Amino acid sequence: MDSIKAFNRFTDGLTTDGNIMPVLFIGHGSPMNGIEQNDFTAGWAGTAASIQTPTAVLVVSAHWLTRGTHVTAMEQPRTIHDFGGFPEELFKVQYPAPGDPVLAKSTADLVKSTQVGLDHDWGLDHGTWTVVRHMYPDANVPVLQLSIDYGRDAAYHYALAAELRKLRERGVLIIGSGNMVHNLRMVAWDKLGEPSYGYDWALEMNEKFKLAISDGNHDELIHYSRMGKPASLAIPTPDHYYPLIYMLGLQGNGEPVAFFNDRAVGGSLTMTSVRFG
Fold first, then answer.
1. Fewer CB within 10 A of the end CB, N or C, for the chain?
2. pLDDT at 204
3. What topology does CATH give the domain 2-276?
4. Percentage of residues of the chain with pLDDT beyond 70
């Protein structure tokens, strides 16, 4: 009986109050944000406080790149410390949020364009837990991840995301975790302490991305390579950009957008985050 109730929770339609959950694109930045209290983490926590508590969180993280698409389907996902060179304190962090195999199966079933694998090996990488632990510090909300098929282009990911819109009606908060502008090779490490320091091309592209998002110009964002050299500097590889594409695919017609944490870091990164709906 309990399993039937759990299944119905994700198949009966709208949330109990009839609201459709927003979707979020989060600029996650350094793994150190996982243990720091700063303006960025306050923005994440404040955003979580401004919406109803979700039935679950589904994250598309820049740090789970696969062949094919997969969703975590274990009861208790592990905390993955997928980085190096940081303080031991960061490696000791555990975020023991439960998983939800029923939701994982329901998510996979929604996608008709490709087969979504049910994964029992991955867990929660730092693109997920460093953000979500500030949003839901009690780790009492189930958290799942959806992988990025890295052999596919932005248009493919945009279309796949649209197939998952029904989850928003079922109380699931979907988060894309990456960075709009993300060029680690060009980081000005000596400028990390300067607030909102960004190269001209990084600030230019951040504004262009925001304008296209505000205007609902998804085609321009999908075909970002047409924006010229500044775009190639902002997105030398699309891993941190694809999570934004997923959130665009999940956006409903006419839904409002709001930006927060809209700052550059180290010259070549932006933490700009977006709430849709």
1. N
2. 97
3. Protocatechuate 4,5-dioxygenase; Chain B (3.40.830)
4. 94
